[in-house]
Write a structure and sequence with these properties.
InterPro entries: Metalloenz_LuxS/M16, MPP/UQCRC_Complex, Pept_M16_N, Peptidase_M16_C. One of its GO terms (molecular function) is metal ion binding. Pfam families: Peptidase_M16, Peptidase_M16_C. The structure is a single chain. The protein folds into four domains: 199 residues, 2-Layer Sandwich (Cytochrome Bc1 Complex, Chain A, domain 1), CATH 3.30.830; 170 residues, Metalloenzyme, LuxS/M16 peptidase-like (Cytochrome Bc1 Complex, Chain A, domain 1), CATH 3.30.830.10; 217 residues, 2-Layer Sandwich (Cytochrome Bc1 Complex, Chain A, domain 1), CATH 3.30.830.10; 198 residues, Metalloenzyme, LuxS/M16 peptidase-like (Cytochrome Bc1 Complex, Chain A, domain 1), CATH 3.30.830.10. The two termini are 35 Å apart. The protein contains 32 helices and 26 strands. By secondary structure, it is an alpha+beta fold. The N terminus is likely disordered. A hairpin with a 3-residue loop joins strand 19 and strand 20. The strands form five sheets. A seven-stranded mixed beta sheet has the order 1-2-3-9-4-8-7, sandwiched between helices. 42% of the residues lie in helices and 18% in strands.
């Protein structure tokens, strides 16, 4: 469960003379920086990990520059950039982006608006054309804005249905009153209702200019050739005289306390501080301070093993002129939140009085050095890191921030802590969990709206896109792993990659707790996995974490385990991982604390809206006594003994059920030698357990609403069981059908009908989950309660049309192109490559399954797609489960 808590808080090279490439410490990577005559800054980073490239256009304008009373103006303009512009209609843009693999998006922040594409390297020209055309002009007509306004207001409703977002919004208003930082970039419904197309057009005319933009390009490219193409496409776009920037006059912050609710199954104590901004000379020391306070050896973290908190952490969000620091502590529902808040305050006060641990400062700096090297392992991730450094931080490269961190001293950290972590200038927040009401079953879906979607008309593409989009070739994978089986049964997969001086390990033990947990002992796997954090029989919790800190490694053990380490420390890292995985300490005192913490968390979880929403879906799809419906309860957790934990560990944690993927700068022979050295002693006893669910019958239709008082919008799932299994080749036809329905914005039917035309939703997802014995199909979306029935009618009619009529030649080609390019894009990061190999191994699929699938996709006909939909989908069986107000 602590990994979940960690996810929440996480949410909360000197460059050369222009035009000259710079070789980094990896000979295969070069950086080219150049500024065009019109002011456009261009940075091109060659990263040969995969035949993929990411372009990220950063406009130096965001919510800070929004007109008074219109906080979401920049966000609205971001949306309108996908509604078309002179020379590129919305339909053309949708078709092109779909054919390139559909991996595109945009993001608006306080001081930047970013547009990014990740595409096969062969499609770089197309991505560059799109951004050049959109920089020149946009069609911000009132008619188009009226359509898009419905979608963006659904995005607002979605965020306002998240109590944690509501908290953040209130915190900004308190923390930065009277400055542009007092609101985020989202915007409000009232402001969007007042916004006009003409206002948006003026905003684009004012701020969207080459001299107000930074273009970052990362991937397997020729930097010099790419720069020449950028010059050709962007060089004649005129620069502009930019409006004046806002002024930031921060007022002294007074201590305050906010009491709010949360729909999470646990509560949150948060102490918020105004921290130094990126422009401040104290920023680097503040980053180190944040890392020190979050370290697992810190006094703040020690509140967890002491049984005083379920989770603790510290994070910092940096803006240019100021930042926000968050101390966070998690408590179970019903616990004394004020007592925990006092504990956290005491810990922080002690840090201020006595000073931070110098060893933790050194560990934080080593961790930043490791993180810098790991940035190279993702094409899109590296583009994001460079964009952050240049467009948001105002640096010359990401290395500038690292260099500043290297210079930080212990005295710097203590001085910054004393200056900024002042309780007299902090905002204290207590978020108390609220329960859901009892799920309510209803009759029928409601709604009798008539809607008859039609097949889309073919769109003529620009000449520069037509040839590129017509390709339907089977992608050539660069993933060529070395596979072996160790004498004890471990399946070892090694994929050498020399893009960085790092190695990562991803491992998993094939298991099914619902099938392997003794009756009445539900939750044993949950408690067990948390106990790995307490070290090994060799090293206790603190000693083990110090050993990791000493080599700048990140490790996690359990039924799924991982290690990220610099290549120079691979042997030591594997030794620590194996020691934790094979010889866990399982201290009795820790067991008792974790047991009580888990029971308290589960008690809140059983009443939380999100949990009841997921359970309502499972109960609607599965038979009453199905093992997948088993759930842990406070009673089952408290019934556990230490013997139950060790017994489960001995029976479930087996090498012959384990796959380990090693990826990075490592020789396959060396990887095998080290893995066998430390994992080779692991032995399995007895026959292999059954870890496969049996088939289930088709479900009957049902309608259930899970009340959630915090939501203004309904979250909705439509789903059904399918009789098809993974061995049936029709699954490839259903993949194609799914990519006709969704996955590529306006170019696909559900997006076009629900968002572009009707404005009912911001997002709609469609997916088939086809397994060895069980399969299902689902559509998920969120919308205002009065529109749920309307959306459901549209979705049902779209599904029926897939069963009754062949998809158009254009749709078929587009869906195939999307699927084929997705295969290439799935290899654009080391994490994605390794996870793909691991998942396919655990699912007993060929490791080259993507290539096999590509061969099927290319040969499929429209008749086969329609026949598969008609055979396997039954709209009469769809269940509807919603969370929020009662749908209408």
């Amino acid at each position: 469960m602590r990994k979940i808590f960690g996810i929440f808080i996480a949410c909360l090279l000197v460059l050369p003379v222009a035009g000259k490439p710079l070789a980094t410490n990896n000979s295969s990577e070069t950086v080219l920086r150049h500024t065009l005559k019109n002011g456009l800054q261009v940075v091109i980073i060659r990263n040969p990990l995969a035949p993929v490239v990411t372009t990220e256009m950063n406009y130096l304008v965001g919510s800070d520059e929004a007109p008074e009373g219109f906080p979401g103006m920049a966000h609205a303009q971001e949306h309108m950039m996908f509604r078309g512009c002179p020379g590129l209609s919305a339909d053309q843009l949708a078709d092109i982006t779909a054919a390139m693999g559909g991996d595109f998006d945009a993001d608006t922040q306080q001081m930047v608006t970013q547009y990014y594409f990740t595409v096969p390297a062969e499609d770089l020209d197309v991505a560059l054309h799109i951004e050049a055309i959109r920089m020149k002009g946009v069609m911000d007509s009132q008619e188009l804005w009226s359509k898009e306004r419905g979608a963006i207001e659904q995005e607002v409703a979605s965020d306002l249905s998240n109590p944690q977002y509501v908290f953040y919004k209130k915190l900004l208003a308190e923390m930065f009153k009277g400055t542009p930082y007092a609101h985020d970039a989202l915007g409000t419904r009232p402001s969007f209702d007042k916004t006009t197309g003409a206002m948006l057009q003026k905003f684009h005319n004012d701020w969207y200019a080459p001299n107000n933009a930074i273009l970052v390009i990362v991937g397997r490219v020729d930097p010099e050739k790419t720069l020449a193409e950028v010059e050709q496409l962007y060089g004649d776009i005129p620069s502009k005289t930019l409006p004046s920037r806002p002024v930031y006059n921060f007022q002294p912050l007074k201590a305050d306390t906010l009491h709010l609710t949360t729909d999470l199954p646990y509560g949150l104590d948060i102490i918020s501080y105004r921290m130094p901004g990126i422009d401040s000379p104290d920023y680097a020391a503040a980053q180190v301070l944040s890392d020190v306070l979050s370290n697992h050896r810190s006094s703040l973290y020690s509140l967890i093993p002491e049984g005083k908190a379920l989770y603790t952490g510290f994070s910092m969000n940096g803006l240019r002129k100021a930042g926000i620091g968050f101390s966070l502590a998690v408590f179970p529902k019903g616990a004394d939140s004020n007592k925990l808040l006092s504990e956290v305050s005491s810990v922080l006060a002690s840090e201020l009085k006595n000073g931070v641990d110098p060893d933790l400062v050194a560990a934080a700096k080593r961790d930043e050095i490791s993180s810098f090297e790991f940035q190279k392992n993702s094409v899109s991730g590296l583009a994001s890191v460079w964009s952050q450094a240049l467009a948001i931080e105002g640096h010359q490269s990401p290395a500038e921030d690292l260099d500043a961190i290297k210079k930080v001293t212990v005295d710097d950290v203590n001085r910054v802590a004393r200056e900024y972590l002042n309780p007299d200038h902090a905002i204290f927040v207590i978020l108390t969990p609220q329960s859901s009401g009892k799920p309510i079953s209803q009759k029928g879906f409601g709604g009798k709206e008539s809607f008859a979607p039609k097949n889309p008309k073919a769109v003529e593409l620009p000449v520069w896109a037509e040839n590129a989009m017509g390709r339907l070739s089977i992608p050539k994978s660069l993933v060529n792993p070395v596979v072996s089986t160790l004498p004890n049964g471990i399946k070892l997969i090694v994929q050498p990659e020399q893009i960085s001086n790092t190695v990562s390990i991803y491992g998993s033990i094939k298991s099914k707790p619902d099938l392997q947990t003794p009756k009445g002992k539900e939750g044993v796997d949950d408690v067990l996995n948390q106990l790995f954090e307490y070290g090994s029989t060799t090293l206790n919790r603190i000693e083990f974490q110090k050993a990791l800190d000493d080599i700048g490694a990140d490790e996690s053990a359990g039924s799924s385990f991982s290690l990220d380490v610099l290549a120079d420390h691979f042997d030591k890292g594997v030794q620590l991982l194996a020691d934790n995985e094979l010889h866990p300490a399982f201290p009795e005192q820790a067991f008792m604390i974790v047991q009580h913490q888990t029971a308290a968390t589960v008690a809140g979880q059983l009443q939380s809206p999100d949990y009841l929403f997921g359970r309502a879906i499972r109960k609607s799809l599965l038979p009453k006594e199905d093992p997948a419906l088993r759930e842990e309860t406070p009673t089952s957790v408290m019934s556990l003994s230490m013997h139950d934990i060790t017994d489960y560990y001995q029976h479930v944690f087996r090498p012959d059920m384990t796959t380990i993927v090693v990826i990075g700068n490592i020789n396959p022979e060396k990887a095998k030698e080290v893995i066998e050295k430390y994992f080779g002693e692991w032995k399995a006893t007895g026959p292999k357990p059954n870890v496969e669910f049996s088939p289930v019958p088709l479900n009957k239709t049902a309608v259930v609403n899970v009340p959630d008082a915090s939501r203004v919008q309904d979250k909705v799932i439509l789903a059904e069981n399918l009789a098809i299994t993974r061995s049936n080749p029709d699954r490839y036809a259903l993949d194609v059908a799914n990519h006709v329905l969704g996955g590529a914005f306006y170019a696909t039917r559900l997006y076009r009908d629900l968002r572009e035309n009707a404005g009912l939703v911001y997002y709609v997802g469609s997916s088939f989950d086809i397994g060895k014995h069980r399969s299902d199909y689902e559509v998920n979306f969120a919308c205002d309660p009065p529109n749920v029935s309307k959306a459901k009618v549209i979705i049902t009619k779209d599904l029926k049309q897939m069963q009754q009529s062949n998809v158009t030649p254009k749709e078929l080609r587009q869906a195939k192109s999307l699927l084929l390019r997705e295969i290439t894009l799935s290899e654009s990061s080391m994490n994605a490559i390794a996870r793909g190999l691991l998942n396919r191994s655990l699912e007993d699929l060929p490791l080259n399954e993507p290539t096999i699938a590509a061969q099927h996709y290319v040969s499929l006909s429209a008749d086969q797609v329609r026949a598969a939909c008609a055979k396997w989908i039954n709209t009469a069986n769809l269940i509807q489960v919603s969370e929020g107000p009662t749908p209408k």
